[in-house]
Amino acid sequence: MVRMTAIEVNGLRKSHQGFEAVRGVSFEVAEGEVFALLGRNGAGKTTTIEVLAGFQRAGGGSVRVLGHDPYAERAAVRPRTGIMLQEAGFFPELTVAQTVDAWRGFTDAPRPRDEALELAGLTARARTRVRQLSGGEKRRLDLALALLGRPDVLFLDEPTTGMDPRARAATWTVIRDLAANGTTILLTTHYLEEAQRLASAMAIMDEGRIVASGGMAETLAARGGRVAFRLPAHVGTGELPLPATVTDGLAVCRAADPDLAAQTLLTWAAERGLRLEGLEVRAATLEDLFLEHAPAAPGRFAEDARGAEDARTGESSRFAEDAR
Ligand SMILES: Nc1ncnc2c1ncn2[C@@H]1O[C@H](COP(=O)(O)OP(=O)(O)OP(=O)(O)O)[C@@H](O)[C@H]1O
After folding, report:
1. Residue 62 in contact with residue 26, Cβ under 8 Å?
2. Tens digits of per-residue pLDDT, 172-185?
3. S-S: 43 plus which of 132, 205, 259, 281, CB 3.0-4.6 Å?
4. Is the CB of residue 189 below 6 angstroms from any atom belonging to ligand 1?
5. Contact 296, 305 (CB under 8 A)
6. Crossing angle of helices 135-147/165-180, nearest 10°?
7. Parallel, antiparallel, or unpaired for β 225-230 and 250-255?
8. What interface predicted TM-score (ipTM) does this complex get?
9. Residue 293: what pLDDT?
10. Mind spelling out the 3-state secondary structure of the chain?
């Protein structure tokens, strides 16, 4: 089957009050694909989504959603798209069920209320007032509303922020099922493991430009991985069989094939009667790529980013287990 292009972005530019938030961005998303648009705060992701959803006119370049200009041909595009923005405008005194019913009134051929609530895992909260929902539950209500019109294209801006691990895993299943049934999904997220698991293609934005993009599997394979271990006492970096950087006694070798690099290092160590304490072999993760291409601004957040790199392995595997 030939997959059509559902979203086309060509040289998109967009300014807010003289500040150019998006500076010539191009990418394509195939029908039924999950595409992750990534980048640190302020990179221009939401602005791009707002243009794609037809809320704002492109300042330069062109965008097409399902073959149409989403701003000029809004009537053709809007009924076929669903959107979950970061800030939902709910009425706090309505219940969840009343909110869905109100939204159904604005939607052509909407899903039944119960089906939408079930998809978003909100069946048990149907009679709860919106103001009493937790942050994660509000995101789930947003998801229910975005899915009401059975959209062909779904824009999800940080869809799982505030969700607990179980709700997040359930949302991933919904997203995967929708894509398997042909829905095209463009999502932004700061949870890189989420992007790595869900998306088959991605682009990393920084300061309004794309700094890395491509198929998820291919891009990660091309980056290679790393082997880390405690540098044995009295061994100099120059004695190692592979180039390594050493920080605070932790040696890190980057390698296209990290398994092979680990074998080389272990053989070398065994021949000398040395142990490689804390040996860790890892394929590249999206987080590696992200930290490389979207470095933190100088100052406090630069240090946070380094902390994230050190803590990364433990954090992401804990999350992975919770979510399984
Ligand atoms: N309405 C607006 N008026 C002025 N500046 C804006 C407006 N909306 C966004 N910006 C600025 O444009 C830049 C890009 O914002 P945008 O919301 O697109 O980033 P983002 O990548 O979605 O960030 P985040 O991850 O924090 O959501 C930011 O510097 C932001 O301050």
Report:
1. no
2. 999 999 999 999 99
3. 205
4. no
5. yes
6. 10
7. antiparallel
8. 0.95
9. 84
10. CCCCEEEEEEEEEEEECCEEEEEEEEEEEECCCEEEEECCCCCCHHHHHHHHCCCCCCCEEEEEECCECCCCCHHHHHHHEEEECCCCCCCCCCEHHHHHHHHHCCCCCCCCHHHHHHHCCCHHHCCCEHHHCCHHHHHHHHHHHHHCCCCCEEEEECCCCCCCHHHHHHHHHHHHHHHHCCCEEEEECCCHHHHHHHCCEEEEEECCEEEEEEEHHHHHHHHCEEEEEECCCCCCHHHCCCCCEEECCEEEEEECCHHHHHHHHHHHHHHCCCCCCCCEEECCCHHHHHHHHCCCCCCHHHHHHHHHHHHHHHHHHHHHHHHC
Residues shown for the chain: 324
The closest residue, in CA terms, to atom 18 on ligand 1 is 44
46 lines ligand 1 (CB under 6 A): yes
Q: How far is CA 85 from the centre of its chain?
A: 14
Q: Which tokens hold the place of 29? A: 């998303």
> In whole angstroms, what separates CA 61 from the centre of its chain?
24
Distance from Cα 144 to the centre of ligand 1, integer Å? 25
Residue 273, phi then psi, degrees to nearest 5: 65, 30
Which ligand 1 atom is the nearest neighbour of the CA of 49?
A: 18
Q: Tell me the pLDDT tens digit for each residue of 1-57.
A: 667 999 999 999 999 999 999 999 999 999 999 999 999 999 999 999 999 999 999
Q: Which of 15, 38, 41, 86 gets mutated to test ligand 1 (max ligand atoms within 8 A of its CB)?
A: 41
Ligand 1, pocket-test mutation among 25, 46, 49, 210, most atoms within 8 A of CB = 46
223-251 mean pLDDT: 93
